[in-house]
Amino acid sequence: MESLRKAWACLCNAFLVEAKWFADGHVPKADEYLKNGVISSGVHVVLVHMFFLLGHGITKRNVDIVDDFPEIISSVAKILRLWDDLGSAKVNLKKHKENDLYINTFTGREPGRARRIIPGVLHERKPGTSIENARCHVMHTISETWKSLNNECLAPNPFSTCFTKACLNVARMVPLMYSYDDNRCLPSLEEHMKSLVYESVSS
Questions:
Q1: pLDDT tens, 114-158?
Q2: Are 106 and 134 in contact (CB under 8 A)?
Q3: For 53-63, b where at least 16 C-beta lie within 10 A, e where not — what string?
């Protein structure tokens, strides 16, 4: 119970940080945003619950490791946060001209979540950097984070195979959840759901 309490407390504190950024009109640097964003993604809370629900390898040492937000969890959280931001940026790009989107998100008045990674990347890179170049930078970061996650899963680690696979499966699911098309739909997810429901029933 103490681990779950800590996880939820960290999540709520991360929400408060984002709320303060929004209220103050503060544009965090990309690293600053991402450090808080991996927590506010909620992945840590989900995987901590999953760790205890699976019931494998629950030792004091492993519980302490989980409480410290290990790489195997933080990598999944980072992948989800970046994909979420990319998907949201694409949706907003459909709604606004590129310059309008830049001003809207950069000044902190974007509807919904107060901060995203794209404004931070634009702020730190050379003047004139396009949103598309910022997106490419974020995709490269996702690719590098996947390398870290694969390394954590393939190298010897204290966690059970069940938990390791669960972390991988959550990360694999992320692109399906956040690959929006121009109509703000998730075609890949819809196809998988149709295949799961209709083909399973027909067979």
A1: 456 655 555 555 556 666 777 788 888 999 999 999 999 999 999
A2: no
A3: eeeebeeeebb
